[in-house]
Amino acid sequence: MDNKNLTLISRIKDSDIYFSFIKSPTAILSTLILIIIFFCSFFVELVTPYNPFDPSSLSLMDAFTPPSWTEEGLSKFILGTDGQGRDMLSTILYGSRISLIVGFSAVIFALVLGVGLGLSAGYFGGKYEMIVMRLTDVQLTVPSILMALLVDGIARGIISRELHDEMAIYVLIFAIGISEWPQFARVSRAATLVEKNKDYVSASTIIGVSNIIIMFKHILPNIMRPVLVIGTIGLALAIIAEATLSFLGVGVPPTTPSLGTLIRLGNDFLFSGEWWITFFPAIFLVILAFSINLLGDWMRDTLNPKLN
Amino acid sequence: MTFLKINNLSVNYEMRRETVYAAKEVNINVEKGEILGLVGESGSGKSTVGNAIINLIDEPGKVSGGSIILDGTDIYEKPENILKLRGKKIGLIFQDPQTSLNPILTIGEQLIETIQTHLKLNTEEAKNKAINLLKEVGIKDAETRFNNYPHQFSGGMRQRVVISLALCCEPELLIADEPTTALDVSIQSQILDLIKRLTKERNLAVILITHDMGVISETTDRVAVMKNGDLVEIGPTKEILTKPKEIYTKALVSSVPPTNKKIDRFKIIEKENKTQGETNIKILNRWTKKDIIDQDLVKVKNLSKTFDDNFFTESTKNSVMAVDDVSFSIKEGESFGLVGESGSGKSTIAKMIVNLYGPSSGDIDFDNVCITKIKSNKEMMKFRKQIQMIFQDPYSSLNGRLKVKDIISEPIKLHNPSISTKDIDSYIYDLLESVELTQQSAERYPHEFSGGQRQRISIARALATQPRLLVCDEPTSALDVSIQAQILNLLKDLQEQLNLTILFISHDLPVVRQMCDRIGVLKNGKICEISETEELFKDPSHDYTKELLKLMPKIESIYN
Amino acid sequence: MVMLVVAFVSFSLFNFVGDPINNMVGEETSDEDRAELRETLGLTDPIYIQFSRFVINASKGNFGISYQLKRPVSELISERLPATIELVLLSALIALVSGTLLGVYTGINRKGFLSDIILAISLLGVSLPTFVIGILFIYLFAVILGILPSFGRGEVVSLGYWTTGFLTLSGLKAIILPSVTLSLFQMTYIIRLVRAEMMEILQTDYIKFARARGISEKSIHYKHALKNGLIPVITIAGINIGTLIAFSIITETVFQWPGMGFLFIQAVQFVDIPIMSAYLVFIAFVFVMINFIVDILYYFIDPRIRVKAEAVSG
Q1: What is the spatial distance between Cα A153 and Cα C16, in angstroms, rounded to a whole number?
Q2: Does A4 touch chain B if contact means CB atoms closer than 8 Å?
Q3: Is C272 within the bounds of a domain?
Q4: Is the pLDDT of residue A284 over 60?
Q5: Which pLDDT score, from 0 to 100, does residue A45 have?
Q6: What's the pLDDT at A61?
């Protein structure tokens, strides 16, 4: 076991990906930022002393405190507080957790659906492939944000208002996931078509390996590179989409605010001078998305798949 | 004065771990009116030298030493020198005519632009010159074809257009980098004749870069042999091919399959796997050897296959007849060869025999059972076990995500579900040793192996089911000649020891001659003739076969 | 084909999402009244009759009456259409022109300092959600500098069916921020695509062969490579306009631009199905038209397609 681990580590160390990673300061920096953000968001209870959603700990006296480095700032609220006296930093971290959960779930949903359909469409071909690809074509013509809005709109029609707030996060995951799956389907189908024509697939067929095993054991690992690149960029897109929907007021409800909700709530105070309430969540969102995109960009260059 | 003088040229590539020398202190001279062959296996640096002359070395490579003097001008002395020479004094032809022309400009536009870049001619004059050039390189209806786009030309015609582009400003040096490798034999000979004719008529200095000893022997006046960036030997072609001084040249020449006789084994001077001695076919102990019965193991009856160009239209208008009413049979224990140029349908037949596609019509019998009509999966598995295949491309035929061990164990487990883990391991080791690979190979991944070694792994995988019929689809055409010789020897040994029946598919006539007992010649999906190998080569009956034999480049032609 | 699918989806919205009667009448309406209304609206007819009626009405531009605003949907849409079209077209122009130019520049000058900066900014642009850009712009230009308006279209001039903001100073001023905001995200996208395309083309054999013939770098870049590189840009341009229409929803919300997107977002919040379905049909129509135009453009630009088409027809 030990020996095996060692060879795995040395294999990683020997690989070109590792080499290009340690050579790329942007890749290292963005990974570091992401690790910090992920850690602080998922273990937010350990990181901050405040729970912004516990009404007993809030005091309206603290409302609209500017950031700590300004004249009226208080050192206990580093980034200031919002209209209800909630500490901005902890609120942002709680919000970022919601955003990340929604983003990851939506991407995983889209990935499983898209890769499943794309892989099988590329492998089996024929009428089935045609139908799947037509479906992605039709859906790709509808921009993702519009798709998500529609799904959300329909969900509002079907689900009662009281239930809607509870269900909002699942609706959101579904809405974003369903709007992103065609990307995965197209990329994995294109990659599958390339792989399918390689002789190792023919060799397996001649040996007598079943279609399911060829698809999942042989082809799937070989198409994961472009899928991962799309997945990384898709994560950034999903987080932005979530924020956008929440900003438009059709995302997660204000009781459990995500980054987008926070920006929307803060936007009302922009003209009255309380800029920090909207500024910090916005900056946080941009840093998060930017880091993910930097990493995705580096991955795209390194893994160098032909996209589309 | 020497026309082109390459002095101590070194080109290196700064790689991540080391600096790779693609050319090391190479000295070559070329005179006007002669064709110099630059020959070597992949990675020998022959293309690097060609690219260095015109300063088009791909990143991160760079010229690190030496000089190139063309007609008295050092082309690396001043950067603007080379820009004046490109196209004007040096013409270049690439390997693949499919990709060397800009798809959205007509060939006329490309010709006129090139001409006007270097010569002071108005558009009308340039056009006349271009049309004359097209005529000179053998394009009919040059006036109308002038306005065509590249995709409207066939491969051979495109290469003619490429040559006319390379020659349009009357260069004195022509560098041809594998100009015929992507073309069929019949077109290859036309293009080579064209180059020879132009060399004489225009008094060109030509550098012909190729891996094909037959081409070298028939076309060049002098030849330079390269290996790993070193110039091994240079001299008159006849001398180098008949009395090579260096061991490497000897090895290279001896591993070229002779076209005029059948030999038993190839002489191997330098082995890829040095640790192994004589082939030790260990797998023999496990092999449930079947005696050869005097019967036709495979019977192909009126086989046809059409591919629909368009998915929606069922009409036959757009469909392509890849295989057209082909019948032949393969005797148990023999090697049957199928030869043909690209598009002749030879690979399609192979894929139907191993049941990757079903035929459009006709039947294939294996061991007196019609395998094209089998519906049940269980029945099919019996035949899957008995028919295995080796593919052309050693890079795509192995799944890069699996260890060699897992690649070879897949067929073993599938066809012997009850086999124990320990037994599988020793099975794998026996297979690996039978194809002259070490036991340690099992733990490694395909990318750690060379092309020839990968082809050995492919053979091991094919043998794992203990097949009776081995279909080899161009198994060596992606390999260098010295490696090709080793793989062909291995296949011969395995066939002899394991009583295999082989269907050998190739475009390479000399190789087929060495490997096969009987040969079928295919053209456009139809069989032209089937005969015993020696009879076919000595006394071909079909015109197409005669043509092919006449046109194939022969290394022996140097003796004449 | 696409239109029919979309029409069916919109129709389903009408029928299965909530009860249209409930949406139209108050709580106190009696069951008899409801049944009567149902009858007059034709909701008791078989589904296919209802669907064909929907398609016929839709093709006449009749999408029913907004639940929330109690006005015909077609009227609401035609009122707001010019605002959205002006915004989208201007943004598309900005995004395409600057995106292509910068993309070509960075594709050719791969290692330059300026290229690195453009690329870094473009990556940042992809990471900046449109609404964040909008808010930042408003804060900077409207709140701090106070030089540009932060909402509305300014004064508009009515030209019959069309109202335009291009003819007044305040209208022009008002469109600057929203259109730049809207175009930024798309522009960065185009930069990256064009750059990748150019880089790939510059690696091809025919470019290498052109170099070997001594063709000047200028001609290689702007004649040989650019022409090939622009082919995919046509597709991008098509998708780009469609995406801009969708993203105009966000921009219109941020800038309170009185266009269709703003109308739609309100419709989603109040489950105003007629507006939603009309908007959907409208978008689908625009997409089908754009695809059609793109196909025609391809035919004229790419000789490979042209020859193939001629071979089939002749």
Answers
A1: 13
A2: no
A3: yes
A4: yes
A5: 77
A6: 66
Which among B194, B215, B195 is positioned nearest to B259, based on CA atoms?
Answer: B215
pLDDT of residue C11: 64
Nearest CA in chain B to C206: B100
Question: Cβ of B290 under 8 Å from any chain A Cβ?
Answer: no
Bridge partners (DSSP) of residue C25 are none
Most confident of A97-111, A140-154, B143-157: A97-111
Amino acid sitting at position C286:
V
Closest-approach residue (CA) in chain A for B409: A207
Same domain, C78 and C27: no
C127, C130, C145, C295, best to mutate vs chain A, most A CBs in 10 Å? C127
Q: β-strands B173-177, B61-70: how paired?
A: unpaired
**Same domain (yes/no): C27, C88:** no
HSE value, Cβ hemisphere, 13 Å, CA-based, for A60 = 0
C12 and C141 share a domain?
Answer: no
The domain containing residue C40 runs over which residues?
A: 2-59
Question: Within an 8 Å CB–CB cutoff, is residue C168 touching chain A?
Answer: no
Of A150, A158, A247, the CB nearest to C131: A247
DSSP count for chain A of H helices, then E strands: 13, 0
| Prediction ipTM score | 0.79
What span, in angstroms and rounded, lies between the C-alpha atoms of C266 and C271? 8
Tell me which residue in C204, C213, C307 faces B86 most closely, judged by beta carbons.
C213
Identify the closest residue of chain B to A23 by CA–CA distance: B16
Mean pLDDT confidence for C241-258: 83
If asked whether residues C153 and C226 sit together in one domain, one would say yes
C231–chain B Cβ distance below 8 A for any pair: yes
Least Cα distance to C190 among C144, C145, C229 occurs for C229
- Listed by number, the residues of chain A in 225-254 with a beta carbon closer than 8 Å to a beta carbon of chain C are 236, 240, 243-244, 247-250
pLDDT band at residue B173 using 50, 70 and 90 as cut-offs: very high
- Token pair, residue C168, equals 């007044």
CATH of the domain at C102: 1.10.3720.10
The predicted model gives A208-223 an average pLDDT of 91
**Residue C26 clears pLDDT 70, i.e. is over it:** no
- On whether both C174 and C247 belong to a single domain, the answer is yes
Task: Tell me whether B95 touches chain A (CB under 8 Å).
Answer: no
The verdict on a CB contact (< 8 Å) between B56 and C231 is no
B partners (3+ CB pairs within 8 A) are A, C
pLDDT in tens, B290-323: 777 788 899 999 999 887 644 444 444 456 788 8
Question: What subunits make at least 3 CB pairs under 8 angstroms with A?
Answer: B, C
Q: Assess if residue C23 is contained within a domain.
A: yes
Structure confidence at residue A47 (pLDDT): 72
What does DSSP assign to residue B273?
A: S
For residues C283 and C307, membership in a common domain is answered with: yes
Number of compact structural domains in chain C: 2
Q: According to the model, what pLDDT value does residue C227 have? A: 81
Task: Test B86 with C209 for CB contact under 8 angstroms.
Answer: no
Q: State the DSSP code for B152.
A: G
115-154 of C, contacting A, C-beta below 8 A: 123-124, 126-132, 135-136, 138-139, 143
Q: Is the pLDDT of residue B530 over 90?
A: yes
A46 in contact with B, Cβ within 8 Å: no
Give the gyration radius of chain B's Cα atoms. Answer: 26
> Is A25's Cβ below 8 Å from some Cβ in C?
no
Closest partner CB to A218 (pick from B16, B397, B399): B399
CB B217 within 8 A of CB B558: yes
Helix extents (H) in A159-275: 161-196, 199-207, 211-213, 220-247, 259-267
Nearest to A199 among B384, B387, B393 (CB): B393
B330 phi/psi in degrees, rounded to 5: -120, 125
Q: Is residue C65 domain-resident?
A: no
Query: How many other C-beta atoms lie within 10 A of the C-beta of residue B496?
Result: 11
Q: Is residue C66 in a domain?
A: no
